[in-house]
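Suppose you are handed only these lines of text.
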Amino acid sequence: MTDSTLPEGLHPQTLAVRQAIARSQYGEHSEALYLTSSYVQPDAATSARRFANEEAGYTYTRTSNPTVTSFERRLAGLEGTEAAIGTATGMAAIALMVYGLLKSGDHIVASRSMFGSTIKLLGSELARFGVETTFVSQTDAAEWRAAIRPGQTRLLFAETPTNPLTDVCDIATLADLAHNADAWLAVDNSFVTPALQQASRFGADLVIHSGTKFLEGQGRVLAGAVCGPRAIVEDKLGAFIRSAGFNLSPFNAWVVLKGMETLFVRMREQSRNALELAQWLQQQPQVARVHYPGLPSHPQHELAMRQQSGLGGAVLAFDVRGDSPEALRHNAFHVIDQCRVISKTTNLGDTKSTISHPASTSHGRLSEAQRQAAGVGQGLIRISVGLEYPKDIQDDVLRGLGGLS
Ligand SMILES: Cc1ncc(COP(=O)(O)O)c(C=O)c1O
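From them, the structure of the protein bound to pyridoxal-5'-phosphate can be written out as follows.
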């Protein structure tokens, strides 16, 4: 399938709207959805060459699909990487990366503040295959350096900002550490997306996405991707996915492809709304602490502004006050339960604001020790801020906060 005939050097904001494969013979303006499992071959000899990778051409959707190709080219254009590969979910992207690149005996250094399922996958599931992970502080480069095992560490992996505490790591510093150890740096960019942060520009080798979140933008489908150099993404991961089948469905690829067209406006507007909510929350007496990279009180505020195009992103977290774990949990549940506009659901990145209690949902499967290490307490609430009128969201949160003693 040929590329569209766009000129070189276009800004990512243009690529978000325009990058795709060429139109079909019908000249459709909106990108076509190729909902097909397999492709009819002109003859057996051509089929044999395509299956042997001696000739370009689609054969079976577990190997590739034109709509998925459009999604991959658009995302790679946005991230500024040579290639991208679509996966069924964000977790499938992480699984594809680790199972496709690592082998028994290899070692990973990862942030201990990552999304709960990522910690579970790296810390428990992967260990059964002889790949060990050392978890370190998101923000202390000395801990990352000390954890690296020369000759054995193959991957450094961080998420920035983290889910749910929005801790920010210095991508360029971690990239230097990884490259000096002959390892790769992978960054999960789901929270701020390439609209705000091109992780590869700061030295990340691989960029992970849960496309389920802001790339898609309206909470309709699950999707994921790994972005990076062709030699890794196409040659290694492309070969592995053909056997492993972690693929993104064409329908989901199409929904995310269309979602990406509004990514830049959504990220800017939702970041503005999140900053307004974070500033308001800071003034509420029932709130002990607000975690949001756009606030000057955030410990990595300046770094975040440098890495994230001057914006904090659309996710924030805050701790309600309480004098015991039981009181904290009770107060957090009370605030969540009083919401009548914000959706009580764990997904994030939607145009609809969502509210959740990380300790009992996204981080509920972790042990108490893992949760404490990740800084996720019982009084913590996460809000992914959408496109509603900001004052309506403040009033919704105030309904619950106002009832706390
Ligand atoms: C930062 C981050 N990475 C990965 C994932 C996993 O994505 P998915 O739900 O698409 O598997 C999530 C989900 O919340 C996430 O927040």
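What can we learn from it? The chain has two domains: 12-260, 264-401. The longest helix spans residues 263-282.
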